[in-house]
Amino acid sequence: DLFGSVLVFPQETNDSYVLVKAAPEQPLQNFSVCLRSYTDLTRPYSLFSYSTKSQDNEILLLKPKPGEYRLYVGGKSVSFAVPKGSPMEPQHVCATWEATTGIVRFWLDGKAAPRKGVRKGYVVGNEAVVVLGQKQDSRAGGFAAGQAFVGEISDVYMWDIGLSGEDVYAAMDNRPLETPIFGWRNFPFETKGEVYLKP
């Protein structure tokens, strides 16, 4: 149980990341990902990368610049404009996707953005490598320092269902209402390179 802890990525490297040692058992018709990040980076960086044999960017949560988040599903992306905000505050994000409509919902600090769509009818593969803090350009590899995350990541969750606004608020408090595939209260992970778990 990592409640109250954060993963610290202290510097820009091409070999420091967190490997999440869990993945869905079945292909996904729906998914949700939530996490909290804290950084003063203004260049592009990757927060959550889920790669399969057939698709590097099967699921990717990327922040290309201040004021924008981008979610990739099956290699195609959809962008959400967000307030730039103060860099001295952590940001909590949740994204959900459903295959039947392709609709993506996105929340920043519990506030929902207008819904958008991508990859209607797609099925997300399940034999995945899940990485925090780097973008996979090949399974568990192909990392570039220029896309590396520097700062703190915590409160990471992934589900095989869509979330409601109520679920998002519960996840922000680390009290998920639905059982996740993996989550911060029971988080199987391995750090690679220079990443530290700190209170």
Features:
seven-stranded antiparallel sheet, Jelly Rolls, 199 residues, 4% helix, eight-stranded antiparallel sheet, mainly beta, 15 strands, single chain, globular
Structure explained in plain terms:
The chain is mainly beta. It has a single domain, classed as Sandwich (Jelly Rolls). It is built from 1 helix and 15 strands, in the order E-E-E-E-E-E-E-E-E-E-E-E-E-H-E-E. The strands form 2 sheets. Strands 1, 3, 8, 9, 10, 11, 13 and 15 form an 8-stranded antiparallel β-sheet that branches. Strands 7-6-5-4-12-2-14 form a 7-stranded antiparallel β-sheet, with no helix packed on it. A hairpin with a 2-residue loop joins strand 6 and strand 7 (76-81). It is globular and about 40 Å long. It starts with 5 loop residues before the first strand and ends with a strand.
Helix content: under 10%
Structural classification: mainly beta
Can you tell me the overall shape?
Answer: globular
**CATH architecture identity:** Sandwich
| Total individual domains | 1
Main beta-sheet annotation: 8 strands, antiparallel
Query: What is the CATH top level name?
Result: Mainly Beta
User: Would you give the CATH topology?
Assistant: Jelly Rolls
Q: How many E strands?
A: 15
Order of helices and strands: EEEEEEEEEEEEEHEE
Beta-strand content estimate: 35-45%
Uncertain ranges:
none
Rg over alpha carbons: 15 Å
The mean pLDDT is 96
